[in-house]
Amino acid sequence: MDVSMTVNGSTHANDVEPRTLLVHHLRDGLGLTGTNIGCDSSSCGACTVHMNGESVKSCTVLAVQADGQDITTIEGLADTARSDGSSTGDMDWHPMQEAFQQCHALQCGYCTPGMVMASVSFLKENPNPTEAQIREGLEGNLCRCTGYHNIVKAVESVAGGAS
Q: Quick check: helix, strand or coil at residue 136?
């Protein structure tokens, strides 16, 4: 099937098998390997991306369901563009990406892209959450290294000023 979607600001038209999961299309079809595959059953959240600004677990979305949609992956959060549209080559990290680094909110890093994407989406819905609300809001994303304390601290550090 022919699909067309905007991924990180660029339009991509591709022929995909109807059963292709969005996560596989992003990784294998478009080469965007920042989105991880953790469980293929929506249990872990490692594959979280934004579809039209909403968090989705891309292992439960077919690529054909994303036809015509606007997708943002972890690679799309960092901005390399100048005002004239050219690229600086340097990353202008999203505040959540910076917070994860500054708060040591990663250990092995496997869950990090999904956690960052879920956290950004969560703060759009609840810009000034309590610690308990953050923990509840991110409960669909698992960290196998149990780094939750620093993940919550990173989200708290961005709360109120999220972009």
A: helix
pLDDT at position 41: 85
User: Which CATH number is 86-158 given?
Assistant: 1.10.150.120
User: Nearest Cα to 117, choosing from 54, 37, 38, 160?
Assistant: 54
Structure tokens at 106: 């990663």
Q: Give the separation between CA 130 and CA 29, rounded to whole angstroms.
A: 39
Parallel, antiparallel or unpaired: strands 70-72 and 2-7: parallel
Return d(Cα 131, Cα 128) in angstroms, integer. 10
The Cα–Cα gap between 49 and 155 comes to: 17
pLDDT at position 89 = 57
pLDDT tens for 120-133 read 999 999 999 999 99
Task: Give the start-to-end residue ranges of the domains of the chain.
Answer: 2-77, 86-158
Helix (H, G, I), strand (E, B) or coil at 14: strand
CATH architecture of the domain formed by 2-77: Roll (3.10)
**pLDDT score for 84:** 46
What are 51's strand-pairing partners?
A: 54, 71
Which neighbouring-strand residues pair with 56? 49
